[in-house]
Design brief:
By secondary structure, the protein is α+β, with helices and mostly antiparallel strands. Helix content is 29%, strand content 48%. It contains three helices and six strands; from the N terminus they run ααββαββββ. It has helices at residues 3-30, 35-38, 59-72, and strands at 42-50, 54-57, 74-88, 94-108, 114-130, 133-148. Strands 2-1-6-5-4-3 form a six-stranded mixed β-sheet, covered by helices on one side. Strand 5 and strand 6 (133-148) form a beta hairpin. The longest helix is centred in the first third of the chain and has 28 residues, at 3-30. The protein is elongated, with a radius of gyration of 17 Å.
Length: 158
């Protein structure tokens, strides 16, 4: 296989690995930010942040912090990760990615009550491959819409 075809295949594999990271992130988030699902998506020295919500540094801190948010702040969610724009570097060792978030969720309000809420925004991330695995280096959630619904969600919430 020529170097060009080999590099192209490597890039395609990187794109798919990153898409799988985003999809797995959504699964973990929808399971109350399950740390067993989310932790392996981040490098040991990664950062996760959302202005006005939290900033976590380090894989274990990220997993524990997100899990706590899933137990105490966003108690139910359905994440739609939409239109990831992935840019893999020419050396196929790093990448950046932005995807939109459309989320239906139940959030604890300042008065302690819960409200079913529309949430929207986007994620910006940087990623790298280390020891053969693509993982997040830095994830920033930029929330642009957060609006409680007048009528509660119906259906099964797990």
């Amino acid at each position: 296989m020529s170097v060009d075809v080999s590099r192209r295949l490597e890039r395609l594999e990187a794109y798919e690995a990153i898409r799988q990271l985003i999809a797995t992130y959504a699964v973990g988030a929808d399971r109350k930010n399950d740390p067993a699902i989310l932790a392996p998506l981040f490098h040991d020295d990664a950062v996760w942040e959302a202005d006005g919500v939290a900033r976590y540094e380090g894989r274990d801190v990220i997993a524990a912090g997100l899990s706590d948010l899933g137990q105490t702040f966003v108690t139910w969610s359905l994440h739609y990760m939409v239109a990831p724009k992935i840019d893999v570097a020419s050396d196929v060792l790093t990448a950046s990615c932005r995807w939109y978030l459309w989320e239906l969720c139940t959030m604890v309000q300042p008065d302690g009550t819960s409200a079913d809420t529309w949430l929207g925004g986007w994620y910006d991330s940087t990623l790298s491959i280390r020891s053969g695995d693509w993982r997040f280096d830095h994830v920033t959630l930029d929330m642009r819409l957060q609006s409680p619904r007048d009528v509660p969600w119906t259906g099964k919430k797990t």
